[in-house]
Fold these 3 entries.
Entry 1:
Amino acid sequence: MKEIKEILLVVNPIAGDIDKKDLVEDFKAISAKCDVEVFIYHTKGEKDIKHVRKITRERKPFKIVAAGGDGTIKMVAEAIKGLDIPIGVIPSGSANALALNLNLPKSLEEQINVALGQHYLDVDLISLNDEIGLHMSDLGINAELIKNYESSTFRGKLGYLLQTIPTLIQSKYPFNFTVETKDTTITEKGVLLAIANAGKYGTGAKVNPDGKLDDGVFEILIFKNLDLVEILKTLRNEVNLSSDFIKILQTEKAKITCKEPVAFQVDGEYLGETKIVNVKILPEKIKIAVP
Ligand SMILES: Nc1ncnc2c1ncn2[C@@H]1O[C@H](COP(=O)(O)OP(=O)(O)OP(=O)(O)O)[C@@H](O)[C@H]1O
């Protein structure tokens, strides 16, 4: 008798403002062909980490597939931290930066096949204060934009676009950032400080040429140029990054201090304002299915 294995599919119903009915049906159909049963959890927006952890303990899935945006993947990574369970990703959020950095395919069928497949990347886990980050976190203008987006009624790319002007008007820039690593301490004025494990933002903007998700280090980028419009254009991938624009440090551990509290986001989730961020690479990694 063949052993039937179970996968946990975590679906964020609101992510990307897209209906996930077809996604779920296609996922079940392709899984059935691979003799895999699917248990589905629809996220609630509250206590999801706790629920996913509980279901994982009870049902012991051999893999968890996250269908949502970056926030959903981050939530799943937090839920199963310390457990040796691989993750699959079906990008279906308004921001899919991790999927972009993992080079996941465009078509849903291919994405499902990759998620169900056996090729994995051991992705670094970054601890930022009490949070886990996988690809891009930042302090400053981009986090302010995410804050405004999260409190607005419009979802998706349009939602971000609509918040651009109010964010520019309300921004408290420039910010004073001090970064301490084991080798150096620097203080810079800037509009944005990014803590990058990956190379690109979800828009495709390649801000961190040295970024590799699995290299055991992260980069700190300080956007020194104070031209907000230019920076937002760069983040939206409309113009190339200019060389006098950015300062880059590569490290495994850093303490970032701001003079005043600054907006902070981790993998697209706004976390409020903070003056201190302690960042370090965790010893454990997370296995994510890749093409
Ligand atoms: N059922 C739900 N109702 C409301 N919010 C939810 C629900 N499930 C998850 N969420 C919220 O969705 C967010 C994560 O969304 P995710 O990043 O995966 O997709 P997204 O489309 O990029 O999201 P967003 O449009 O908010 O950027 C979290 O803030 C989480 O609390």
Entry 2:
Amino acid sequence: MRHYPSHIDLAPAQQAQGVVRLPGSKSISNRILLLAALADGITHIKDLLASDDTDVMLAALQSLGIQWQQIGDSQDYTVPGAAGAFPNQHADLFMGNAGTAIRPLTAALAVLGGDYTLHGVARMHERPIGDLVDALNAIGAQIEYTGAAGFPPLHIRSGQITPQGLQVRGNVSSQFLTALLMVAPLIARQQSVTITVVGELISKPYIEITLNLMRRFGVEVERDGWQAFTIAAGQRYCSPGIIHVEGDASSASYFLAAGAIAGGPVRVEGVGRDSIQGDVRFVEALQQMGATVTLGDNWIEARSNGILTAIDADFNHIPDAAMTIAIAALYADGPSTLRNIGSWRVKETDRIHAMATELRKLGASVEEGADFLRVTPPAVLHTAAIDTYDDHRMAMCFSLASLDGFAQKGAHVRINDPECVAKTFPDYFEVFATVARSGVI
Ligand SMILES: O=C(O)C1=C[C@@H](OP(=O)(O)O)[C@@H](O)[C@H](O)C1
Ligand SMILES: C=C(OP(=O)(O)O)C(=O)O
């Protein structure tokens, strides 16, 4: 069901102020759904994210025979766990463009056995999965590419798994290691399993989310830094009973940046200082740019202190929220550089190229490197029609260019194809309008 028209026009808004209740975290929602499906017992999930990415995970689990139930119209679900094996051994699964669905499910289905096909939208078929397939096939899985080698779609058949010497490369996506960690207890029945990371690992905080949630479902992982992860034999996933999904820290970045750019205060609720999501560290970048940020147990608030200070920093640990910094850079007192963001090239779109192209429409000078972006703000933001490349974060980030900063007036911004926000935040523009009240026409 389409929610938005073909474009949304945002008029300049003088101030951002208000309180936003965040939708649930995508990373936590999809991990919990899979762990609950694999666990012993019934899991009661509170505040699951409602979005395209969670819909594909829910639909896939249903096709695999997991009879989850939504409680009325709420975002609370019950998931009866299948105790380490899916009831259906044959399924054709549509994965949309959800990395957090296809990567862990590929690993689970490959080690559990059966006959499965996994495919997604056109862009999903351009997003790499080769490092994960190599790791799994090396221990006896039977995964074939039915399109281009290294990319979905995939055909998975039953293999003979001998889980010794499991290793994976981590420099393209941390989701490959997450996928192997999540299925490791399923293959560590008799003997412990060690996963060795080959070379550099990117997006490290997402591994902490994985380990934290595995622990909530009763599985402990011993680790040697970021190099090796060992799952002792005989551990099973057990339902924690009730589990609550935190608000999404990446989604929080748009509202916190709004407060930092255009006065504030803007408060987000649902995530706070004890969050398990690495993207809460986005606030450190805002603070470095001169904003005042206050953190509570379950809320974060940002406000401006005048023109933002330009930033030059490594954003490898927060690749998603870093896109928001590229827009905040339009309001800074000089050029900002975002470093070590090479993974942007293999996400919903080539985000380095898309970001550079669209920032230039607003009048910025942008230098695009293999793994960095340098943004020099223009004297005056230009009126622009922003293309979104079917990337939710492009649509959400660029809404911020409609805000008045201290030295920079907000632009008239047209967001083309805003529907793409459904990937993680289906009513983003309604919520944005409550903060930038005069901004939506
Ligand atoms: O594990 C996760 O939940 C995610 C990991 C990150 O991906 P990479 O590890 O590919 O950078 C992030 O960009 C993505 O939105 C969610
Ligand atoms: C990279 C993202 O998604 P995915 O989980 O599909 O990798 C994202 O949400 O920014």
Entry 3:
Amino acid sequence: MELPPGLVYIFGHLPRVLISSTSTYIGLYILQDRQVLPNLPSWAPIVVAILAWPIIFIAHRYNTLWANKRAAAANGATIAPFVNKSPLAIISEVVETIRNGYPGEVVLRWTKEYGNVVQFDLFTSTATFEIRTDASVKMIVDEPEHVKAVLATQFDSFAKGEMWKFHRAMTRPFFTRERISDFEIYDRNWDLSLKLAKERIEEGHSIDIQDLVSRFTLDSATEFLFGASVGSLSAGIPYPPAHIESNTPSFYNHPSTKFVKAFTEGLILAAVRTGLGREWPLVEFGHDKITPLRKVMDEFTDPLMKMALAKREQDLADGIESKDKEEMTLLAHLVNHTQGQIIYTTTGFIELINPVDPKMLKDELINLLVAGRDTTMCLLTFAIYMLAEHPDIEKRLRQEIFDKVGPTDGPKYEQMRDMKYTRAFLNEVLRLYPPVPADSRTTTRPVVLPPARKGQKPIFIPKDTTCLYTVINIHRRTDLWGPDVDSTNAALTFDPDRFLDDRVQKYLVPNPFIFCPFNAGPRICLGQQFAYHEATYYLVRLLQHFTEFTLDQLSNLPPPEQWKSGDALVAAEKIRPTSHLTMYIKGGLWVRMKELKTNEA
Ligand code: HEM
């Protein structure tokens, strides 16, 4: 039987507390016994022993602060200011942002208030006392120069996660041009999507495009990764909120619905755990909430894993070596390339040395599903939101699609390379609505970052500090993306041409870290090209078949009232962008669209 997470946490911390209290008590006893100390009342050693741990903490905390100050001074650097708010104020601002706020809002407010680099700590506003001693201080480093240091130039000073190199090396060879340019899977899933969309349009209803796209990306990703689709498109799509009674029981009870529900809930819980840091077991004290969700997902993945492993064993027994071309799923690739070394024993038997743990294989696949599904779904959902907001852009995109691909055929890799406006459009969506709006890295040794502003000192970051950076805020800054043009804010204007005209040379080329939706440096997204292909494929198909995208404002969740006082972009939002690990639209994106008649093209 497994212990609940809360007890594991307490038992894990208990020895340190017990050791300090017990040794203090014994020490006092010996000192009294040897008459080094006068005899104390019997309760006194007990009280001192109980207080031993907090006292050690405070002493450690002050010692660390003092040591950091000295180290900063020795480097000619400065320590960033702490966000000067009470712990309750910090918690309530974060909770309010999760409930009603705009992604990246808290960070923006804090960095504006205190200068660009700030520190915050849930346990104290003034950094006088800290319950944990490592990775508890978070620092916001929102300057492109700092992001460059964190992701690239000082990459080795930040934690990479256990076995990161191994995982990357194992997965990377799979993303060859040939594999990521095979659009057969998309063709099948597009046909299903098209049928669902057409039926719903004929019934006179709007469509939750976010839901439809997420079914497309999930089915494509599971087929690409595991060799079998979850089949979420075959469940159908939901009716708008006002017609919820039209959803059939078979829609709710479809096996894929269970998988999707477990997957989505798991992502939200994982984001909550990340926010809580190492203290998450205190919130899930008696019950680990993610494990049962993982079991639901395992019901789908386990049989596929077993099949792949059995096939590999059979191939080995038959002396068949896998051909690269045959490995069209990532699972087959991982099984073939991580099964350890094959040796022939003296008795002629084949033996595997260091076979890879199937659990690790499964984790790898689920990680890739997280990395690959919701990100592309986000890109496509916000792309369609922008089509609804900018009909002129829809026309230009269709023009390019018809010029390069034609009105009916699916796109090919070579054609995609020529679709410059489509790529610029996708980049502009990624700029204003980056699927991973914020990210973080933790220092493994002290780091000195360049000054945030001219004339300021470099910034000293102690060891074990979690550095947050909000890509979404960097992507929207006027000082980085251009000043006002015809009285509107250029950085907050949706304008794909900025990735095509002289603004590329002016802003992006000299300062590439102002745009990093896929991260940068040695840990840059492995699926970047895959994602561009998938999104381009979907856009081509969508614009070959549909036009006149308009938002169904009776079904979309309206943005909170307070957003009206935000910047120009936030104030003009018609839907509610929010985020767990990745961005999405709360309540979905309900859109009406018309079938495209050939002569309209
Ligand atoms: C628009 C779509 C996508 C965006 C914006 C995106 C963004 C990112 C970002 C920001 C990271 C860095 C995360 C971190 O290290 O903290 C990342 C990593 C990664 N992504 Fe993507 N991604 C997208 C699509 C995909 C797809 C489709 C796949 C695979 C099928 C994929 C596979 C990966 C992998 C394997 C990593 C880990 C790389 C490493 O740690 O070395 N991504 N992605």
